[in-house]
Amino acid sequence: MKVTRLLTALIAVVMLAGGITHLAAPEFFFPIVPSIFPARLAVLGSGIVELAIGLAVLVPRLRPHAGLAFAMLCVAYLPLHLWDFVRPDPIFRPWPLAVLRLGLQLGFIAAGLRLWRGRIGSVTHS
């Protein structure tokens, strides 16, 4: 139960803060968006998704689904983090900071999956 509370708080804070920041200062995130995507739409859209996940994780009935959505969103962001290692103008410098960011992303994926898998123990089989 303690782990669930910790993961819930972590995901809520990360997603709500991220969503608010994406909507309040979208220009900050434009350099991260690959040029094949419309930057404003991608940033604002991801901000809305982040807010939805951040709110959903606070609702016990929706929490497992929010955990899975969080993990899936982090997986979707993973190529951007990997791209930063090879792009000519990396966003995260120095290189160890990019490694730390990648490790944090993998930890976020694990946290979301852990929260999602927590639903299995509450299901009864007949």
UniProtKB/TrEMBL annotation:
Keyword annotations: Membrane, Transmembrane, Transmembrane helix
Domain of life from the UniProt record: Bacteria
Transmembrane feature ranges: 36-59, 66-83, 95-116
Name recorded for this polypeptide: DoxX family membrane protein
Organism: Rhizobium glycinendophyticum
Lineage of origin: Bacteria, Pseudomonadati, Pseudomonadota, Alphaproteobacteria, Hyphomicrobiales
